[in-house]
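Quick log. Single chain, no ligands specified.
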Amino acid sequence: MIRPVVNSYVDAAKVNEADQALRELSIIDSITGREKFSGKVTELVKGQSQQDWNAFLSTALFIGGAILVTLLYVGTINYRESSKNRHRLKSGHS
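-> predicted structure:
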């Protein structure tokens, strides 16, 4: 199901090796088979992981920063309004 997507990002030979390891693991479930499959999947992920990680971090920082700025702005406006209301109630000019 995800094979076409993976093939467009990773070398097809590596995908076939991982696929073969998965088939062998599904036939005979063993520790060695699991380790082999895990190694093949790690090889698939290792090449692009640093670029993907950098893209993820920059996206997360951008979105997180936007959310933080928005929350600080709304909090500041809310504090000003509640402060004005508090002063009006104290002075009796409601």
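The mean pLDDT is 80.
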